Amino acid sequence: MDRQRISSGTEWEREVGYSRAVRTGNTVHVSGTTATEDDSVVGEGDPYRQTTRAIENIADALDEAGADLDDVVRTRLYVVDIDDWDEIGRAHREAFSTARPAATMVQVERLIDPAMLVEIEAEARVED
C-alpha cells in the first residue's frame, strides 16, 4: 500500500510518532489539528478564531496531499466547553458549506495546551 505522509514539522510529530496527515489511495486522514502557528496558540480565548485557524491548518495539510476542504467527508471536533458549540459550529459551517461532511462534536476535559479550546480531525476522499 502506498502511503504519503504529510508533516507540519512540529516537535509533537517526532515525540509522539505521528504525521499531520496520511494519504492512502484516495483517502486522506488528517490528525487532530489545533489553532497553532509557529508553535503558538492562535486566538486564545476565542473559540471561533481557534476553529477557523485549525481548519486553515487542515486545509494546508489537505493541499499537500492533493485534496481540499470540499473533499472532506468526515470531521470530529473535540471542544473543552460545549457551550461554545455555536461559535465553533459557525466556523465549521463557513468552511464546509459545500462539502457538508458527517460531523461529530464532543466535549473533552482538556487538550494538550490549556489555551486550546478545539481540536479537529478530518477525513477526505479524492478522485483517483
Automatic annotation (TrEMBL):
Gene3D superfamilies: RutC-like. Residues 24-35 have a biased composition (Polar residues). Residues 23-45 are annotated as: Disordered. Coiled coil: none annotated. SUPFAM superfamilies: YjgF-like. InterPro entries: RutC-like_sf, YjgF/YER057c/UK114. It holds the Pfam family Ribonuc_L-PSP. This is Enamine deaminase RidA, house cleaning of reactive enamine intermediates, YjgF/YER057c/UK114 family.
